Structure prediction request, 507 residues.
Amino acid sequence: MNMKQVNYILGLCLLTGNFLFAGNPDRTGESGASELLLNPIARSAGINGINSARVKGIYAFSSNIAGLAYGMKTSVGVNYTSYFTGTETNLFSAALAQEISEGNVFGICINSLNYGKVTKTTVSNPEGIGTFSPAFVNIGLSYGRLFTEDISGGIQVKMISESIDNLSATGIAFDLGLQYKTGKRDNVHFGVAVRNAGTNMSFSGDGFAFQATEPGDQGYKYTVANRSARFNMPSLITIAGAYDFYMGAAAANCYPAHRLTVAGNFIYNSFINNQYGGGLEYSFKEMFTGRVGFLYESKTFDADYMTGKTGLTAGFSYDLPLNKEKENGPTISIDYAFGLTRVFKNNHTFGLTYNMAAPNKSCKKIPKKDAYDKNAEATSSTEPAPKVSDEDRDSVILFASNIKFKTASDTLNKKGESILNKLYEVLKKYPKANITIEAHTDNEGTPESNMALSQKRGETVKNALVEKGIKESKLKVAAFGETKPLAPNDTDEGKAQNRRVEIKIEF
Prediction:
């Protein structure tokens, strides 16, 4: 996808928002299906959905569906919310996300809101004549697409069903989303999402009919059937951003262990006040994560505030690796979110998720040896050696390790093309540097064919850098085939480590 197409999609989202949203609090009460505004996913609810610019994988269903594109192979999750604890109102969510090919993910999410048993009353029986259990269910079918390493989009179709005593309503709503990330460590995030744009709904059923008696001596009885007015979906548009700060010393093949993310968003609502949110998320090795968020709207601090929520949420996550020896291996994620309310006993959300690949893993598998040579000694005792910053040095190691090719081919995949752009942005700072591109393979095939393949892959990287502006005279290719493995070739993980590109720099 080129930037023209991205701008088109972004413009379409914003244009759709202009048609759908008025942000007029005077329209409060004119929409229905308000359960679509509840966030049932603990990892996202803990920051009040303010992470919609960087939410990933199965956790993206209720904030920005574009994040679904960053699939974790196979993910299965369940979440349970005690909503306004003490009212017997519960929200249950179950979701599945499956990556079917590189950058293409399908998902399904089922949400059910239950109010417990409600006493059924009539005019003639105000004390009640039994109970009934309202049930609000929506099922979302989703698709996420990774257009480039930095740009993702997604769409979700939600089928909505609401039922109370002898009455029901159905409808269809759509979610659209777009995410973009940039920065040397992909630490700058932007997102836009349109949610709950769909058909109008209305209730129908026998619950609107009653028996009446004709005035007069005859006293004939007849049935009166009422009709309900149609109501709109609670449509909204979200514009969000986030910035990741990495802290602490970094190993040669890892991001720093500490991440602090500052996030903010603006929600343009169709039937209530617009909302402004800010949040913080701290993570240690992307294993232990804590978060807090606050969502503000007009009159949040007034005594006659329209909802029972205060806007303050907090939560934490723990991603338990199931195979500690396998980088980016499967995990079990445990999540909790707390929402402060003005009435009853607050909101509590609990989540449990299995991911076949680790979510948001910060330590990427790259060669453990230093693939970026230390600076050569100065040519003159009075002239200092050229200096490469530690940040650029780490970036080159990281980017080089993520240059990927299609299987048994010297053609770059989508990720490889994107990574080369980032690599060029660093290398162009050092026009006097001599750069060696070392290409390696696993042991699939013959030694001769692997040597030839590594040479072709090295030439592909060299040619791409020349096209972007690096002088050809400063670039050299060294092909090693299968002769310098980093790991045994008897496992898929080992072979993946050995299929690599390393960049060396000298002055």
Observations:
- The longest strand covers residues 167-182.
